[in-house]
Write a structure and sequence with these properties.
The protein is an alpha/beta fold and about 375 residues long. It contains twelve helices and ten strands. The chain has two domains: about 5-155, no CATH class; about 235-355, CBS-domain. Strands 1-2-3-4 form a four-stranded mixed sheet. The chain has a three-stranded mixed sheet with strand order 5-6-7. The protein has a three-stranded mixed sheet with strand order 8-9-10. The longest helix is centred in the first third of the chain and has 31 residues, at about 40-70.
Length: about 375
């Protein structure tokens, strides 16, 4: 994710913090100072905010470690102002596994609240029983925050964990796409309820309503795409009319190809062997910095993802979505045979739907 910085690697999983999270910290610090709190009190409040987001990271590691039990690796975890994001390399194939992965995050929050409660009883001798996260002492606030995080994430609506848990339960009785549609519809219904309540009570509920609505819509679209391309090899959806560059070419040739046609990103060959990828953004940066006469080899990416023409399109699309490059060169036994982009996958799905063809009849 752009504007993110790596702060740690835990059990082989990189942890990033997004730049906007720093803005959030500065906002709360300035708010407390502006409200008349002393510097020490404002710093203490900010420190507690960092503790809260540390529990968010632990929540995401709950998902990651549970997924690892089923052979699913986590690409990274990113800390955002709205919470954390653990990127799994794929979703579990078995609904019950997805259920456990979804519930592992809230389980971490409830476990942290339970541990804090034990500490409070043994050492502090008292703890506020309220769920008010703004009072009750440090331990009381920590308990309240974790209870709220756990309960909030159990709301049965995407993108919260409760929505994924609900989808997993429904998928044990219904086809996966249908289960996703049912869970997404419920989530959108809850979003409307949150929005109506927010109009008359708390405006923050309007933000939650928008968040839930967009999450439900995005999840339904993603699963619908997965269903549409399931069982399809990359070779059926790839671009076959591909313009290539030689490693010794000047950037002028790449610029001419961009202007002359619709292709924006180019495989780079050296004596017929694929050695790099030159994207449109890299081309623009290189031309701006070094001019059109500089060689392609200085602007291309020499580390890049590829797809095999015989692999399933679903896995290649997941890789395309997760990598920074907008294009995957398609190869067969190391030989370039095509390109795969999000745009041509979308066109393939659109034309396939318009033609009303079955998977077996589509070529």
């Amino acid at each position: 994710m752009k504007w993110s910085w790596k702060i740690a690697t835990v059990s082989g999983i990189p942890v990033y913090v997004h730049g906007t999270f720093l803005l959030l910290i500065m906002f709360f610090l300035a708010r407390d100072l502006g409200a008349g709190l002393g510097l020490a009190a404002a710093l203490a409040s900010t420190a507690f905010l960092l503790v809260v987001f540390a529990t968010v990271v632990l929540h995401e590691f709950g998902h990651a470690f549970m997924a690892r039990r089923y052979g699913i690796q986590t690409r990274d975890i990113t800390l955002l102002p709205i919470g954390g994001l653990a990127r799994l390399e794929r979703l579990p194939d078995v609904p019950r596994q997805e259920l456990y992965v979804a519930l592992a995050g809230p389980a971490v929050n409830f476990a942290l609240a339970a541990v804090a409660l034990v500490v409070a009883v043994l050492f502090a001798r008292s703890v506020s029983p309220t769920l008010d996260a703004s009072g009750g002492g440090l331990l009381g606030r920590f308990i309240a925050v974790n209870l709220w995080l756990g309960l909030f994430n159990l709301i049965p609506a995407f993108p919260m964990d409760g929505g994924r848990a609900l989808r997993a339960l429904l998928a044990e009785r219904y086809e996966y796409t249908r289960a996703t549609e049912m869970a997404a519809n419920l989530g959108q219904g809850l979003a409307l309820v949150f929005g109506l309540i927010g109009l008359f009570t708390n405006p923050f509920l309007l933000f939650i309503a928008l968040f839930v609505w967009m999450g439900a819509t995005a999840e339904a679209s993603t699963v619908s795409l997965r269903s549409a391309i399931s069982g399809t090899p990359v070779g059926r959806a790839m671009i076959t009319n591909v313009q290539t560059l030689d490693i010794a070419d000047a950037l002028q040739r790449a610029a001419d190809l961009v202007i002359a046609g619709s292709q924006q990103d180019f495989p780079v060959l050296d004596q017929g062997h694929l050695v790099g990828v030159l994207t449109r953004d890299a081309l623009v940066r290189a031309v701006s910095a070094r001019g059109l006469d500089s060689p392609v080899r200085e602007a291309m990416a020499s580390t890049f993802e590829t797809a095999d023409a015989r692999e399933m399109l679903e896995r290649a699309v997941a890789r395309l979505q997760s990598c920074a490059c907008p294009v995957l060169p398609v190869v067969v036994d190391g030989r370039l045979v095509g390109l795969l982009t999000a745009e041509n996958v979308g066109e393939y799905v659109m034309l396939r739907g318009a033609a009303g063809q079955t998977r077996s009849g589509w070529a």
